[in-house]
Design a protein that fits this description.
- The complex is a heterodimer of chains A (about 250) and B (about 325).
- Helices cover about 5% and strands about 40% of the residues of chain A.
- Chain A is mainly β and about 250 residues long.
- Chain A has a single domain, classed as Cupredoxins -  blue copper proteins (Immunoglobulin-like).
- Chain A has a 5-stranded mixed sheet, with no helix packed on it. Chain A has a 4-stranded antiparallel sheet with strand order 12-2-14-15, with no helix packed on it. Chain A has a 4-stranded mixed sheet with strand order 4-3-6-9, with no helix packed on it.
- Chain A is globular.
- With about 325 residues, chain B is mainly α.
- A two-stranded antiparallel ribbon of chain B has the order 1-2.
- Classes of the chains: A mainly beta (about 250), B mainly alpha (about 325).
């Protein structure tokens, strides 16, 4: 009985601390107000698309199998994810987004959350994008404990625990920030990166190194590609009405 | 005697706690348990053993040992309150109790505030103070201290000064080390004994400066320890209470420097790194023990060399008069 009361008190205190120390959403800033009307409406009939691919030049470090013996629940093999490449040097997990050129347009924030799962003792996906004000659903799909520790600079740092499989918590970033590192301090190899933007024009390269930014209004944009180890590259791209520009390429070197 | 043995046990437990704390920092597990004082919502002592995986093993073990040491110090303080006739020794117990409680709160705050450097460094620095306090309590309960070391304590002003200076510098060196650890400067200079292949670092930034200061501090502390021990061996080689801590210091010094070098060369291997922390604490406490023994003459001789009995009139009984017995320079008994 005493233990039960203690546990209840402990859980209550834990929840209180969680609420006080980052479990809840950041306060939203005016620029990230959900469902705000665009300042300059985008004409769907004239929107353009930008696509391309990211290539890695040189020989990347081989993906190494990580020792996960510190947690016997992590039975699936885990490999380093910093350099995931496909054929012909295609580079996966590069965050590509419109850095500049959208002016003062505002965009409605999606009401559906993006999911960052902890599965097989890795973060899935390794890189993702979200809009400021949009929920990220943090999910523990493992039969072990995880803590989700975000280390942003423009947003509020948080560290929440998910000791039970199936637990879900939501978090909202209020300020734009590319990239916000996530890590699990229980399993030191686990990390992820989240790009937080005030618009929906972002993508993460797939195994073949490609990306697509669809539905852009005609204009001149600064496109930035961000890799967790290789840094950032930018390009200026101009698209006209209904234009599809598919040759935007970035090459990172190791 | 029983109180002395218990105090010795508490001091040893504090050393184990410092090693466990070193492992938390060395393995980067400080935030693997996001809540405090609970552990993932469980009351600390009911957290399931099978869930102590990954970084949780280090952080939660540290918490359990810390709680145990905290309890041991509570018992020590109460025991001394009941049985210790010397008021200043009782006060040491209260100070140790306050320090360990503060230490626990600092540990909690550093978790809840995501390891801010200032709090983490304060946590590491206060840990050394707690260790010093528990070791001091054990020392002043020891039969040797009670008997004033046989022929009476040494009265050597020069030794007192140099030993005290050494202890202060060892503590300052540990503060620099704690700053280096908690600001991530442990590998700011990646080679040893040189710095980027030079005697002086060819480039500077705050982390390199902190790291280099720790190396310079090690040199200063090494010189001071050599000076102190040389003085002991030259002037007081028959005094076991001074020779033994000097011998221990001379053993710990090369061990500590080797561990420091290996910490860098191994890329901060966790166990080596933590052994470096606890060996540093041991150097501090050994130096403090030597220093306190050089000051023994200032504390008088209670009960004429006999072990202390129970307080004559309750815990508030006053301590005996200070009676210095021996002046090593004059070789005269008072």
């Amino acid at each position: 009985m005493i233990i039960g009361v203690s546990r209840a008190a402990g859980i209550a205190l834990g929840l209180a601390l969680l609420a006080a120390c980052g479990g809840g959403p950041d306060k939203l800033q005016p620029s990230a107000t959900p469902a705000a009307a665009p300042a300059a409406p985008i004409d769907p009939a004239t929107v353009a698309d930008i696509s391309g691919h990211i290539t890695l030049q040189g020989t990347p470090p081989r993906a190494e199998k990580i020792k996960t013996a510190s947690d016997p629940n992590c039975t699936a093999p885990v490999y380093t994810e910093s350099f995931v490449t496909g054929d012909n040097g295609a580079l996966q997990n590069v965050f590509v987004y419109v850095k500049d050129g959208l002016g003062n347009r505002t965009f409605p924030v999606p009401t559906t959350p993006v999911v960052l799962s902890q599965k097989n003792c890795t973060y899935v996906p390794h890189v993702l994008g979200v809009m400021a004000g949009q929920s990220i659903e943090l999910r523990n799909d493992d039969p072990t404990l995880h803590n989700i520790h975000a280390l942003p600079e423009a947003n509020r740092e948080f560290n929440m625990g998910q000791p039970i499989q199936g637990m879900r918590q939501q978090h909202i970033f209020s300020a734009t920030e590319v990239m916000v590192p996530f890590r699990c301090d229980v399993h030191r190899w686990m990390n992820a990166f989240v790009g937080v933007l005030d618009h929906p024009f972002y993508a993460v390269t797939t195994r073949d190194g490609t990306f697509e930014l669809k539905g852009l209004p005609p204009g001149t944009y600064t496109i930035e590609a961000v890799h967790e180890k290789l840094g950032r590259q930018t390009q200026t791209v101009t698209v006209g009405p209904k234009e599809t520009k598919s040759d935007v390429s970035f090459t990172f070197k190791v | 005697m029983l109180l002395f043995l218990y105090a010795l046990f508490v001091a040893a437990a504090t050393a184990v706690l410092i090693f466990a704390g070193g492992m938390v920092t060395s393995t980067g597990s400080g935030l693997s348990v996001p809540d405090w004082p609970n552990t993932y919502g469980w009351f600390m002592w009911t957290f399931p053993l099978e869930k102590m995986v990954g970084g949780i093993f280090y952080e939660h073990t540290h918490r359990l040992i810390a709680s145990t040491v905290g309890f041991l110090i509570v018992v020590l303080a109460v025991w001394m309150w009941r049985a210790e006739p010397r008021a200043w020794v009782r006060r040491l117990g209260y100070i140790a109790l306050g320090a360990v409680v503060t230490q626990g709160i600092l540990g909690g705050l550093t978790v809840l505030w995501y390891l801010p450097d200032a709090i983490s460094i304060a946590h590491a620095s206060l840990a050394e103070i707690v260790f010093c306090l528990t070791a001091t309590i054990a020392l002043v309960q020891s039969p040797g201290w009670m008997r004033a070391y046989g022929d009476g304590p040494v009265d050597d002003r020069m030794l007192r000064r140099i030993a005290a200076t050494t202890t202060v510098f060892v503590y300052l060196q540990i503060l620099i080390g704690a700053t280096m650890r908690h600001t991530g400067a442990g590998l700011a200079i990646p080679d040893f004994p040189f710095a980027f292949g030079h005697v002086l670092p060819p480039q500077w930034d705050p982390k390199i400066a902190i790291h280099f200061a720790h190396r310079v501090g090690a040199l200063i502390v090494a010189c001071l320890i050599l000076a102190t021990t040389a003085h002991v061996f030259y002037h007081h080689r028959w005094r076991h209470e001074l020779v033994w801590p000097s011998v221990i210091l001379l053993c710990l010094l090369p061990l500590q420097i080797t561990l420091g070098a290996l910490t860098v060369l191994s890329g901060k291997q966790e166990i080596i790194n933590s052994l470096h922390v606890v060996t540093g604490a041991s150097v501090l406490v050994t130096s403090l023990m030597l220093t306190l023994r050089t000051f023994r003459v200032r504390f008088g001789i209670p009960f004429s060399g006999a072990p202390p009995g129970p307080p004559r009139s309750g815990p508030r009984a006053s301590a005996p008069e200070r009676v210095p017995l021996y002046d090593s320079r004059r070789g005269v008994r008072a």
